[in-house]
Structure prediction request, 228 residues.
Amino acid sequence: MDHGGGFQFGFLGKISEEIFLSFGAGIVAGILVSLYLKYIQTDPVLFILAFSYLISEAAKNFHLDTLIICITAGFWVTNASNRGKALIEMIEKIALLIYVVFFCLTGASLNLAALSSALFITIFLVAARMVFLYLSTSIGLRVSGESIRSPNTLWMAFLPQAGVSLGLITILQLENIQWGENLKTIVVAVIAVNQIIGPITLKYALQQSEDIKPEEQQSSANSQTIPT
Prediction:
């Protein structure tokens, strides 16, 4: 909004340009990764680290969105080149290190004073998310006509939550918005609760639907603690 209350169409155009250029850069990045996976495949860990740094710096210099670029690149590699499995295997070699550093920094930035004052809204948001997940899955099953063994527990499979939400809220905080820190504290708290109870409810939902064998239950639940 401008000072006279009108809408700044120039700002909207700038944001739209940034988004579309980020998509384009993501496609280019996806093509480069696909070519690497097809013809080179040497030193994958070093390649991922160097390529990620390159994308981050390029996005910063050209005012693009890093998350959009990476998501688009991954989508391109998986759907346009059919090398998504190789990309995932390559990233998994360094994923644990990245997750440890990311969540340590996120936890260190958590404002406990703000969290204590926002405890009620945190509990409310967690409960509201559960309710809307139940309603949306119930409506989705009814509209689609799908029949599953345990429709009342399907919503529990969608409770785990982490990576993308934390990334977005971190970017928001970097914009120096006045209420950014308080919002990040609430979002991190909500994600922490969902990340604790999410794998438990997912395992229960899988058991009820009989989609996993007993020997697979532990490994399936453990795999879902990795951020998505």
